[in-house]
Automatic annotation (TrEMBL), chains A, B:
Family (UniProt): Belongs to the glycosyl hydrolase 130 family.
Pfam families named among the record's database cross-references: Glyco_hydro_130 (PF04041)
The species this protein was found in: Aureibacter tunicatorum
Assigned keywords, A-Z: Glycosyltransferase, Hydrolase, Transferase
Protein name: GH43/DUF377 family glycosyl hydrolase
GO function term, MF aspect, one: hydrolase activity
Coiled-coil region list: none
Domain of life according to the entry: Bacteria
InterPro entries per record: Glyco_hydro_beta-prop_sf, Mannoside_phosphorylase
Length: 379, 379
């Protein structure tokens, strides 16, 4: 049996019987309809699984519907309680056992300039270790843990630094999870499938380093599965959105770059796909994130051709969502809205998102409103 | 018809009737048996295809046998003739037409610190544009052009900066070419197949950015094709050798890192696969390149499990080839030996290699000699 230094998963602190009417908050500068109950989930709502640790961030959930409930697959990032004068961080070994590495803060070979990364003698580690926790809701607002569905933990050497930011799609009665595998050898896209959120089948890494933000389309175009993904390049190229093709979801080819960063715009530094594209009459609608050089993460939209989704029909000139609520401006890594999951109800997209890399929120969008910004006459 | 600013491919300057006996040169510090006729090919041996251009480098050939001859698929890198005070470089547009961009050398937005890359306003270009030229030989030493087999030119927007460093394997009577596609959106691995070296079938990009050094195994292990490849990571990870699996050569999955760089060794900065692994009784023998932080490129070997080649059985502690001949030390980018092609004759591997990113050479190795360095008793 796999040996973990994880605690038992506790039941939720959240009560399931709060029935708060959904309220929307409209802020200026974007077309997001934030709900009044934001933030829905924060680190203090759950107990850490690692000994002597805290939950530093709760973020970027995959979203799915299961047995009549809304499910979020939260990314939970834990960190050892820090002792004054020292820095410590978790790393998993090849037997899936967590070890805590500890250094004196003043160590000359240590670089702590980034809140997310620890550099020691030129080798990079993460300050936190992430896993994926499913939580459920009857109303899409109040979420609770379900002991029948324990957390999904990192496994194997290419997940030694954790697993992050999972997208979930349902194809042929199975849930398909694409997520970020993180280790010292690189950051790539893992693929897991499940039917019951208890038994998981692992299919290895489907996009090699450096890659993340992978969203599989929920249906084939013709005979072909498509996925958006986000390779990063150290030299030519950058942090751009690409598309790939597959016949079996396991093996991928015919990679094409479909959306680069745009000089001088809100998405000049990096872009990446959100959740699976939404099929509309006008094309596949993809909500993506874009960041500028100040690390301000906004959301925008892409419209892709229905038959050949490698063709971009339209792209947001201005973001459809800009961090501006207080919980979006301040947190573990402020000025960030980031989504990788939603539920579609007719014209309404219920978007769950991570705010400031710390809390989980929800905002709703109207598909028509987004399409209007993409297809207005003056374009 | 595709419009090119290429000249007609001229016939070779090489005479086919020189019959020089093969001689070997043994240098200290490695087990490479360099042939006396090195360098076999240099830029002056061919005429450039672009107008007003020179061949800057001739390098890194893929190697194959075709109709009783040895074929090299040379990488030819051309550059416009430079005018004093200006820097100019070629870029291909979406209609496969070459344009020459020219800037004043003193332009404040220009960065010319790397011989291979031009940076202008933060966007990177290459100083040269590469294509692939087949040449043939009856003796493995004297090579000549064959007008029946014209050069393979870049095509499409993801090859706008050229195509480079092709590996060739023969599977099921077809030649399979994996090479580097270079453009502003990134560097990835392209795949082309041919039966006759005249008609080429293009299969798109099989490994997305940032990736190169892809070598497909010449036979399946069980039901699975394998390929080595070399993604590069801007953050965690680095320039490491990975392996991937395929059922059809077009779509690839189950990516695993099998060889990282090694701190303090000759391959501390970057490693990448050479040509297809050689099947031996002891395992798959792969000759790879490794570089240190001074950009000194040597060759080493990996021994991979015959049934599961993601398992590394042995790895060179010391390089099997170190740049030391004069043509390996001085050139367009000196101190480099780099191979991506060979012919195997019993125990002998006839390795063709690029030296100093400028000329093409040959060295022979003994498989037994390499295996002895890998499997000596004290390991």
């Amino acid at each position: 049996m796999t040996k973990y230094y994880w605690h038992e998963s506790p039941n939720s602190n959240h009560s399931n019987d709060k029935k708060i009417a959904k309220m929307e908050i409209m802020l200026e500068n974007d077309i997001a309809h934030r709900i009044e109950q934001n933030p829905l989930l924060k680190p203090a709502d759950f107990s850490p699984l690692m000994e002597n640790s805290i939950i530093e961030c709760l973020l970027n959930p995959g979203v799915f519907e299961y047995e009549g409930r809304v499910g979020l697959l939260l990314r939970v990032a834990e960190r050892p309680v820090q002792k004054e004068g020292f820095v410590s961080f978790p790393v998993m070994d090849e037997n899936n056992t967590i070890h805590i590495l500890e250094f004196e803060e003043s160590h000359p070979d240590l670089d702590l300039s980034d809140a997310r990364v620890i550099s020691y003698k030129g080798k990079n580690y993460l300050t936190t270790l992430s896993y994926l926790k499913p939580v459920f809701s009857d109303d899409g607002i109040n979420f609770y843990e379900d002991p029948n569905h324990p957390p999904l933990l990192p496994e194997g050497k290419d997940e030694a630094y954790g697993i992050e930011d999972c997208r979930v799609v349902k194809i042929d009665d199975k849930f398909h999870l694409t997520y970020t595998k993180v280790s010292s050898t690189g950051v790539g896209v893992g693929y897991i499938s499940t039917s019951d959120w208890k038994n998981y089948e692992r299919h290895g890494m489907i996009f090699p380093a450096h890659n993340k933000d992978c969203a599989i389309f929920e249906e084939k175009c013709g005979e072909t599965y498509y996925a958006l993904h986000r390779p990063s390049s150290p030299e030519l190229g950058g942090n751009y959105i690409w598309i790939a093709e597959s016949k079996d979801l396991l093996h991928w080819g015919n990679h094409k770059c479909i959306a680069a960063t745009r000089q001088g715009k809100w998405d000049c530094a990096r872009v990446g796909a959100g959740a699976a594209p939404i099929k509309t009459e006008k094309g596949w609608l993809e909500i993506y994130h874009g960041a500028n050089y100040d690390h301000k993460y906004c959301l925008g939209a892409l419209l892709l051709d229905l038959e050949d989704p490698s063709i971009v029909l339209a792209r947001s000139e201005e973001p459809i969502m800009v961090p501006q609520a207080e919980y979006e401006l301040t947190g573990f890594f402020g000025n960030v809205v980031f989504t990788n999951g939603h539920i579609v109800k007719g014209d309404q997209i219920q978007v769950y998102y991570g705010a400031s890399d710390e809390v989980v929120c929800r905002t709703d969008f109207s598909i028509d409103e987004i399409l209007n910004t993409l297809l207005s006459d003056d374009k």
